[in-house]
Design goal:
This protein has 144 residues and is mainly alpha-helical. It is built from four helices and two strands. Strands 1-2 form a two-stranded parallel ribbon. It is globular and about 45 Å long. The termini are far apart. The mean pLDDT is 96.
Length: 144
């Protein structure tokens, strides 16, 4: 039994890095955009029409948006797990923004000041803000 006020949200995991060696990547022809589009298709087909699911946490689009910035396709540590610094920060910002509807522009917290530059923070916040606004489409970064 759930708590009476509990709500269910769907976490959209990210597509693998283009050079990932994960065996499951073969299911998507080892192609990041095929994986991304298949995940979005599944969300549209099974999640958006499910009245038990109250919201979507679009980490898939936040990460894909960030990949269009100067950071490129370098957000994982092994091709599929987000790296400990900026990759996980992007996912965390996405969860925060999706669950609270609060703006993230003024968040000053940096979990790794020696690893995450001001430009990386700017690109991450832009990627997340755009994913929250447009969760089912990639928005090209202006932080190039």
């Amino acid at each position: 039994m759930c708590a009476p006020k509990a709500k269910i949200a769907w976490h959209q995991t990210w597509a693998y890095q283009q050079d990932s060696t994960h065996s499951g990547f073969a299911n998507y022809n080892n192609d990041q955009m095929t994986m991304y589009n298949n995940f979005l298709k599944a969300t549209k087909q099974y999640v958006t029409n499910n009245n038990k699911i109250e919201g979507v946490i679009p980490c898939i689009t936040s990460v894909q948006n960030a990949r269009t910035s100067f950071m490129g396709d370098t957000l994982t540590r092994d091709g599929y797990h987000l790296n400990y610094n900026i990759g996980r920060y992007i996912a965390g910002l996405t969860w925060y923004a999706a669950l609270t509807d609060a703006p993230i522009e003024n968040i000053a917290f940096n979990p790794s000041v020696t690893q995450i530059t001001a430009d990386m923070m700017k690109a991450a916040k832009e990627a997340v803000t755009n994913a929250i606004k447009t969760p089912l489409a990639i928005t090209k970064s202006t932080v190039t």
